[in-house]
Amino acid sequence: MQGTAYTLFQTALGTCGIAWGDDGIVALQLPEETAGATAARLLRGERAARAQLPAPSIQRTIDDITALLTGEPRDLQHATLAMTRLPAFHQRVYAIVRQIPPGHTRSYGEVAALCGRRHAARAVGQAMARNPFPIIVPCHRVLAAHGRSGGFSAHGGVTTKLRLLAIERAALGGKVPAAAGLRPPF
Fold it and tell me: Catalytic residues, which ones?
């Protein structure tokens, strides 16, 4: 395959999108207000991408994401990510964050320490804000100090982050966020 391919797929949260190339997955997009908006955000910077049926490895990732978003624990370690265009620090952060299992969280400071840069919590936050692989690199599982939610760059912001954590039954500040009432605008 040459170039970038993509597909949109339905989840419990709405229409998600995934783009891939020869080196693996290049982007994953959580739902926007419309499927068209999801595709547009997924493909920013990938103008030559073409819609295509997913290869079996991509379909496996889609199936696992779909199941995860219904509350079924899934391991996405099998998903190959194309990270060569990303800064080395971001690659390290993403590798560490991928190790956080569903239902668990870490703080920005803990991730920074695991990267060997214990005072780099803000840099970890910046890497999370630029994460092109949400869910696969579960940035929603990274919290601010003392269990506070911190930010979230996906559509719906912190409400979406809290909804993802509620789906996974993750503790937030010692409490599991309630799924009721956490309805992002998509």
Answer: 139
